[in-house]
Design a protein that fits this description.
There is one protein chain. This protein is of the alpha+beta class. The protein has a domain of 126 residues. Helices cover 52% and strands 16% of the residues. A four-stranded mixed β-sheet has the order 2-1-3-4. A hairpin with a 5-residue loop joins strand 1 and strand 2. The protein is elongated and about 75 Å long.
Length: 193
């Protein structure tokens, strides 16, 4: 009889840990997204043959924001220069003012991949450079978001964009095992499905 009771206690303890694990997992994704939203950025921006710029690498950084601007001349020589946070802020501010006047590429539908350097910097790091309030205002502009996607090839942007859109919408629930509840075939369950 003692083994049965101890097995029952072990089962209940295990179930308690599973429930606590599931509950803590449900709340971790939005917190991670909020923590990376206002972080400074490290960017690698590359000039395309059409003269436009795209972000090919992006990562949050604990230090000041900075970018490496890579361009190729007509002879095929690649040059790189480091752009400081002050330079990035100045470009982003100029582009934001153009956007408010309706004179920026960010106001229109994207026509091709990439944009001018100012638009690319603003699209990739606007919130980090000019503040979250401006970053949030930019994200409410659908043409800005489309241009942001057209000028940013980095894996970080793709994964961060996916997290923020599903976290912001709140319509997609994650199951305990990481899948989407929309894919579930059962109509409910013990763990809140």
């Amino acid at each position: 009889m003692k083994q049965f009771i101890s097995a029952k206690h072990a089962y209940m303890g295990t179930m308690g840990l599973i429930v606590l694990s599931a509950l803590s997992g449900c709340q971790s994704a939005p917190e991670e997204n909020q923590a990376t939203e206002g972080k400074n950025k490290f960017l690698v921006v590359e000039q395309q043959p059409n003269g436009k710029f795209v972000v090919i690498e992006e990562a949050p950084t604990d230090g000041p924001s900075h970018a490496i601007i890579r361009s190729t001349d007509e002879n095929g020589t690649v040059t790189e220069r480091v752009m400081s946070e002050a330079e990035m802020k100045e470009l982003a501010d100029q582009e934001y003012k153009k956007m408010q006047e309706g004179k920026s590429e960010l106001n229109a539908e994207p026509h091709s991949e990439g944009m001018g350097l100012g638009g690319t910097i603003l699209a990739a790091a606007g919130g980090a450079l000019l503040g979250n309030m401006i970053g949030n205002a930019l994200m409410n502009n659908s043409n800005f978001r489309k241009n942001q996607d057209a000028s940013n090839r980095s894996a970080y942007h793709r994964s961060a964009g996916g997290m923020s859109s599903s976290a912001a919408s709140g319509t997609q629930k994650k199951s305990f095992f990481g899948g989407s509840s929309a894919k579930s075939t059962s109509g409910g369950g013990f763990f809140g499905g």
